[in-house]
Design a protein that fits this description.
The complex is a heterotetramer, with two copies of chain A (351 residues) and two copies of chain B (226 residues). With 351 residues, chain A is of the alpha+beta class. Chain A is built from nine helices and 20 strands. The longest helix of chain A is centred in the middle third of the chain and has 17 residues. Classes of the chains: A alpha+beta (351), B mainly alpha (226).
């Protein structure tokens, strides 16, 4: 199946969504964006809940715009599940199912056997989302749309259901669109990520491309990259560009940089911290020795703010707890900062 | 309320309840209020659904028109209805010619009651429909179910209690209608009119039996419907 | 409604509006409905606030009692009021002895109107108070403000529009009251009663001026209050 | 200031909160728990919105139970801000302020100068929370309560406001209780974390203690620790205990273990991955060589599932992106898993 959106547009008062061009084949596209970005506009348009002002939505060449919801064969899992509160879980799935065997099959797949006879208000958040998913899958939809199904769940359940969705998505052969505001969910579930900003697609690409090679400051910031600095390109060779950050020169592998002013973008998880004067081994990296200004325990990692250039630049690094403890870091600790050439990404200034 | 039941000896009341005028008015009231409620529900429900699911200037204007009978004084309602359906109006003349007079007849009573009772169905059912999350309707339709199936299996069951409350209120309002009925259809006498007549002609004591019966019928309807 | 305004020539209506019975009834209606609305608001607002912020069996019972006049037929209301406040009741006798009769007087009109209009204030204001998120009241009090300061600066301003709508509805209902007024206070004649009298004694055409004036006054009140 | 809760109890229908004993001095206590755990019951009790069934709440010896809200001098920041919608931001703060200079002072501190004349509905989520915080601080409360003020914000704004709160909390000298369901927020803002489960305090301690030395499986799971296995203690020495996981022996530094059945608890951020046959240097760690079963890109780190004991145990490790790329990990890759002795925590079986 191929879902193809062309020049899709929808205006809501002041707000303009689109024009959007997008093709999703049998993979998972995670639609990521802040609240108010318009990411929630997309799914209702495809499902047929709202009509676009112009443009087309084609599914294997069949035009969906103009068709009523019920004739689109597009399955949608709503944010809070949208289960029918007066029907049991079983009745909810049966209502949608084309064959009654399908109900038990899906109940087994999604581990719902024990809750089939309960009504939605008595189910936990995770169970509700599983029933909603089963109900949608029961119609064997051509396209699967999911609207932040995990956002209201507690962390451990969210993690577990996310893993289950991951396996499920791999077994489905249809275009899947997954809307979320959570960068982790988008990264782990999406084969590709589409970043939405002010009603437009800002960048579409694989998770690692979007994370390490953002095309704008907005994308970088929204995917957790806090290290964004204004820099000047001083030299360009075949192997990359040299960039000046304050008084310090950094070597990068960036090519195709045609402006001299750039945004230097270094993901905190790619900044490495070592004790001072420890040799770097065989890797070539940019190295500076500076002091720790601040640290924050963030659970599975520590966040270290390092002041460079007498405090005019604050570089953030994520450090694993064992490293943090081994280096016995505290405020004022002197550390060696290693930034591999290929970890420095340059975003050209927009004209 | 309690004073109403205590003010006259019970056997006295029971005896007077058998009086033909009491029985006649009770029959007229029950019949007319039932017809009015059914008519109001049949027309009111689709209108309420439309009002609940549509936005815009037209919706607002229709809503004002629907609510109008709620705030209009009953005697003014009577005058409005007489002007439109009265014997000297074109509609009224046509109806009389067809042997179906719209005033001083059961039709007149139903007309007056429907006019004042309909807003209750529309307003309450509208609120009930609005309380059904529209997402549930979208969910049902995205599962391949038509609008009609969705309405029958999702919307109506969920809006049910609210709609029933509206229908009950409409019945209560219909069976109690006085002002417009007095002007449009003094005959056949409904119970509220009979109370008035009994009070004027025979005094307060004689109005009690009909009043008690009316309260009993209305409360029974409230209990049965809820 | 439109037919009401078109049915009689304008100058004709204006001439008849100057008739003393019309002016008298308009004065009575305006005065009594205003008093009733004020009384209903003074007692209704605190009650509505209490109902909105309390849960439990007592609240529910009080609510049922408050809503009762909404579904009670107007003539039954009249009988109930006569039984409690009428000339032969202890309360009524005491009032007459004090030179302040509760029937066939402005007091009687106000009594009837207040009884039927109060529920509108209570029900609408209750909904308005409930629509004010209680968290805002807690927030205000956690900032060191007393209940009274909180009510004045937070709750009332936010519930204002809803309360105003309830007061307006109460006024409209009071000025239109017919059934109970007929039984409790045929004199001094309010406009709805005057419409009835004009209709019965002089025919439909003579009821128009009062009806038009009543609709105008009621609509003006609706516009002014909103 | 010292806030002291003693034997505090509150029953809601089926649900029982407490009895809770808790003392908070001039530090930040993060109250962490899943939805429905009762963590949201605590703040209304202290603020005076609800009354406890029994027990006492004392502030420097002054009993709060029985006092009305307005006489407690307890400041509360509500989940969505609870700003008065009919007042501008300035009026909201003025309403609470004891002196008018305080308004401008707080506006400067919280960077609100530009939005003071706007009404709450026109403010962004982050601005609303800042105004709410300013309004509460304007009363100079003796205790500061915060109810998930960040939960509805987008990631970049949440991160920024969290950092601001961190600095603010350090400058305040009063007990602060911060309720959240997010482990990261609790870890980074709390001087201590209190874990709430089914209306009881399950564990109270510093973030690193709660994270690395959980006292129960529940705490471990809720703070992001997925590696929980049933093990048997085979040997105890003065330096620690040896535990058998399937057929593999692990050495630990755990002491005070008196049961033979234990839950072995290894935080994924403390499992290290190396290429096979790379020497471990001078650290002593438990080492096994196994294969990668699955990997997941989680944005700033990769999650690697490693099958141990022919798949009967799945060990999860968090790996930094540079390490992941350097080792060129994929499904089936053979890796050396290093688990330092002190990173293995044992939870005794409950009797």
């Amino acid at each position: 199946m191929t879902l193809e959106l062309s020049r899709l547009r929808k205006a809501y008062g002041q707000f303009d969504f689109g024009p959007v061009d997008l093709t999703v084949e049998d993979d998972v596209l995670a639609v990521l964006g802040p609240s108010g970005s318009g990411k929630t506009t997309l799914l209702p348009l495809i499902a047929g809940i709202t009509s676009p002002d112009s443009g087309s939505i084609q599914l294997d060449g069949r035009e969906l715009v103009g068709l009523p919801l019920e004739d689109r064969h597009v399955g949608m899992v709503f944010q809070e599940g949208a289960l029918f509160p007066h029907m049991t879980a079983r009745k909810n799935i049966e209502y949608a199912a084309t064959a009654s065997e399908r109900v038990d099959e899906l109940a087994t797949l999604l581990e719902l056997e024990d809750v089939l006879d309960r009504k939605p208000p008595t189910l936990s958040g995770g169970e509700r989302q599983r029933v909603a998913l089963a109900r949608t899958l029961a119609t064997d939809p051509d396209v699967l749309l999911l609207d932040e199904p995990l956002s209201s769940l507690d962390a451990p359940i969210r993690k577990r259901l996310r893993d289950e969705l991951h396996s499920l998505f791999e077994s489905l052969e249809s275009p899947i669109l997954y809307v979320t505001h959570d960068q982790r969910t988008a990264t782990s579930l999406g084969d590709r990520i589409a970043l939405v900003r002010d009603g437009d697609l800002e960048q579409v690409g694989s998770p690692s491309t979007v994370l390490t090679r953002p095309t704008s400051r907005f994308v970088a910031r929204f995917t957790g990259n806090e290290n964004l600095f204004e820099g000047t390109v001083t030299d360009r060779t075949e192997d990359g560009a040299t960039v000046l950050l304050g008084d310090i020169q950094f070597e990068t592998t960036a090519s195709d940089i045609h402006t001299s002013t750039v945004t230097v973008c270094i993901h905190p998880s790619r900044v490495e911290i070592e004790a001072p004067y420890v040799a770097d081994g065989d890797r070539t990296a940019n190295t500076v020795t500076e002091t720790v200004a601040r640290w924050l325990n963030e659970g599975s990692e520590y966040r270290i703010d390092i002041e460079i250039e007498a405090g005019s630049i604050t570089l953030t690094a994520n450090v694993r707890p064992p490293t943090f403890e081994r280096l016995a870091l505290e405020n004022g600790s002197e550390v060696q900062v290693l930034i591999p050439k290929e970890s420095i990404h340059l975003i050209p200034e927009r004209e | 309320m309690i004073s109403l039941f205590l003010s006259v000896p019970a056997e006295d009341i029971l005896a007077r309840m058998n009086h033909p005028t009491v029985i006649d008015s009770a029959t007229t009231s029950l019949l007319s209020a039932s017809i009015s409620t059914v008519v109001a529900t049949l027309f009111g429900l689709p209108l309420a659904y439309w009002l609940a699911r549509t936005d815009g200037a037209v919706t607002k204007i229709v809503l004002v028109v629907v609510v109008l009978p709620l705030v209009l004084p009953p005697t003014v309602v009577g005058i409005v209805l007489l002007t439109v359906f009265g014997p000297s109006s074109p509609l009224g003349e046509a109806a009389i010619a067809a042997g179906f007079p719209l005033t001083r007849s059961l039709a007149g009573v139903v007309l007056a009651q429907t006019f004042v009772a309909s807003p209750f169905v529309v307003v309450t059912a509208k609120a009930a429909f609005e309380s059904v999350d529209q997402t549930l309707e979208y969910a049902s339709r995205s599962l391949g179910k038509s609008r009609w199936t969705t309405a029958r299996h999702v919307t109506l069951p969920l809006a049910g209690p609210g709609i029933l409350a509206g229908v009950t209120l409409a019945f209560a309002r219909a069976i109690g209608e006085f002002g417009a009925t007095m002007m449009l259809a003094y005959y056949p006498r409904t119970m509220p009119v009979q109370i008035w007549v009994a009070f004027i002609e025979l005094g307060l004591d004689n109005a009690y039996p009909v009043a008690i019966l009316l309260v009993l019928i209305a409360s029974t309807a409230l209990v049965v419907l809820n």
